[in-house]
Amino acid sequence: MATRERTIDDLRALMRAAVGEADDIDLDGDILDSTFTELEYDSLAVLELAARIETQWGVLIPEDDASGLETPRMFLDYVNGRAVAER
Amino acid sequence: MSVLTADAPAVTGIGVVAPTGIGVEEHWAATLRGVPVIGPLTRFDASRYPSPFGGEVPGFDAAERVPGRLIPQTDHWTHLALAATDLALADAGVVPAELPEYEMAVVTASSSGGVEFGQREIQALWRDGPRHVGAYQSIAWFYAATTGQISIRHGMRGPCGVVVAEQAGALESFAQARRYLADGARVVVSGGTDAPFSPYGLTCQLGSGRLSTGADPARAYLPFDAAANGFVPGEGGAILIIEQAATAQDRSYGRIAGYAATFDPPPGSGRPPTLERAVRAALDDARLTPADVDVVFADAAGVPDLDRAEADAIGAVFGPRGVPVTAPKSLTGRLYAGGPALDAATALLAMHDSVIPPTAGGADVPPGYALDLVGAEPRPARLRTALIIARGYGGFNAALVLRGPNT
Description:
The structure holds 2 protein chains of 2 kinds. Chain A contains 5 helices and no strands. By secondary structure, chain A is mainly α. Chain A starts with 7 loop residues before the first helix and ends with a helix. Chain B has helices at about 25-35, 60-65, 70-75, 75-90, 115-130, 135-140, 145-155, 170-180, 200-205, 245-250, 275-285, 305-320, 330, 340-355, and strands at about 10-20, 20, 40, 55, 105-110, 160-165, 185-195, 235-245, 255-265, 295, 325, 355, 370-375, 380, 385-390, 395-405. Chain B is globular and about 60 Å long. The interface of A and B includes residues 18, 23, 40 and 45 of A.
């Protein structure tokens, strides 16, 4: 599926819808390089985010790959094809 | 197991999220007004269903009362319980962060689990395919989800459990709380909520044949009335904080003095139902006699055969018109797992204020029931001991004896 570049704002919206918003974490802040642990995402939350990316953006992220994506930037790089190119 | 009243566990906090309101004050005021809050369902359009009425929690906004992360991750029934737990903890003055995490326990009751959440995911499954089923379906529908989320949210790492016994479940949760306390827990979050209003949830309930199909919401649930024709479901419930008698001290609303449960023989066995035995055993457990009981909060099924069976059991234990009986759930509908939890909360408030709450409409009780049913007006009375009766669909019976704080 040919798509435009996904941005951190696109991902923020998806994160809000998929996992909700914690009271003590500002998703509008500088979260690009925050780890999902820092964002209080457990493995189920990462799985849900990956599933939303697949169904809404059309980019399949196999579970084994998803578990290695530790920050929003890594998710975006993966989705935008950069991570694949670098491998 | 038997516990003397003096050492009996104390209820130190009450959190209500019910059709009568959010919080103890709203609930108690609405209960004493005695005006039913049953109406056409608004959570979804139920107008084409044979039983389109229910008792819904007014003005519940999850965004105000549930942590943002948990809103998309849990069902409405868990939202209601999380909100009730916050209210109950605040009411008890319990700050979980200040207590040893392994000495705080959680046991709740659930009757239908996350049925609305589950329906959404099943719809996604059939409409869009398996990749569209959210990851949280794996935990949100499950009966234990509420207990688990309360435990995680408040760092309560002591024993945790869930009871699934339809309408009897919440009384079982209080009994289990008592066992946890006997085993060394300091604080137990217990009680129950349910959220039975989704197309799938309502359809499941129709199968029992016990839902009212009357066209007038004001006449749809008339327990112990000559015109009883089934019941109306409701959502919500109550969470109670239960603590060891020694640590509760002057924060106590009252005590869990006695409890028993029985299970009915299968239909067609020829053997009698066992509700009477549950009531007697609960009194024995409390080391009290029928004469000690000042008020009975009835199960109040609203189904003629079941109303008669309950009236017979009460009569057998207490004698004809031998004890005041009330059914405040006539105001809200039957809340399933939440119902007896709310009754327990109401009974504690009644003992505190020395008044028996009314039964909506003031039922036209058939003389054969020989019940002293409290009518449409509250009845002042000195109340030291209350009995709560609950029956769950499928044969569950439970009875709980509560005593006031100074007994």
